[in-house]
């Protein structure tokens, strides 16, 4: 009995006094988090910032010429003021349907995507009479803008176990009597056909893998076809060989450099001076007291080094494994009254052949349930954003808080009942993030 009690006390001691996991490195200094050496990280950043030309395969329709155009504040990989346009309509069955966008004077119709590209490579000198600019037809009554997201620190987000998000959602539902209940969405891992994982990237959680996210962005934002997304949106004006993105001398294509660059970034750093102020410290307590932390979760941890993710295609390194980080977000989908009614297109994000593949744990009805939901915006680095919420429509932190309705209605009401000085303390805490 004495031996049993000793072992029991030792186990309790380990539980209560187990060493905390190492913190993920923070900063806006363009340094690697340890995943790769400095020279490799600099070279990957150069690929991320590279301006694509028509000869590289840019377009034919696109939004940006470089990843940096949409993800750069205060350094490459951060968020920006750039918005993208998405539209669609409600079908006879009451469900969201992707738009039909006529181009080339109606001789071709772009389908299978909610994204409407803002730019096109022609008419130009080679194709002076070819008109391919996308414009929204009056029939597409669902319209929204979505702000570019921060990518810094996303290597740690990718390395969070699926089960962590599943457990977090269950705990939210249980503790809040289903008033606040995050949705977990299993999405295809494009580089591992047939495999799925819990989505965490993009405003609709459309990707779980940074490599899948990279392939999607290269095609849909820049028009650069690649091994994961080999099909052009339109062949009009296109003269580049396919796929546009091919491996270099090191065996890596641009999408590989893009994914590795993001995986190697440090997480957004706090305003160290403001974070220690009495006002912000009181605000942090109020943040939790009113319930903001239910969705804006302080801390997440990554899987152990050596764990295989993304259908076995990616192995977590020691630089990213067994780390704690503080995103102030749960990366789950919630209805907070600002949903845009849009359901992500399967072919847009996962390729035109996605329906030819049997995907494990993929539920199309679950995708339909996301129409009026948006991924919780992680608040790390929020002080550096001039336009807030998924659409960039809120321009102050107070505006953003007061827009929270739906699942967060009662949390917003608690905030509104705070005294004016308490509200200012909570806002000061947010300004420190």
Account of the 3D structure:
- The chain has 433 residues and is α+β, with helices and mostly antiparallel strands.
- Helix content is 30%, strand content 11%.
- The strands form 7 sheets. Strands 2, 3, 6 and 8 form a 4-stranded antiparallel sheet that branches.
- Helix 2 (38-49) crosses helix 7, helix 6 (210-222) packs across helix 7 and helix 9 (278-290) packs across helix 14.
- The longest helix has 16 residues, at 2-17.
- It is globular, with a radius of gyration of 23 Å.
What is the structure about, briefly put?
With 433 residues, the chain is α+β, with helices and mostly antiparallel strands. The protein has 14 helices and 16 strands.
Determine Rg (CA atoms, Å): 23 Å
- SSE string, helix = H, strand = E? HHEHEEEEEEEHHEEHHHHEEEEEHHEHHH
Are there runs of 5+ residues with pLDDT below 50, and where?
Answer: 1-17
Structural class, by secondary structure, is: alpha+beta
Q: How many β-strands, per DSSP?
A: 16
Shape: globular
- Helical content class: 25-40%
Measured between the Cα atoms of the first and last residue, the distance is: 51 Å
How many separate helices? 14
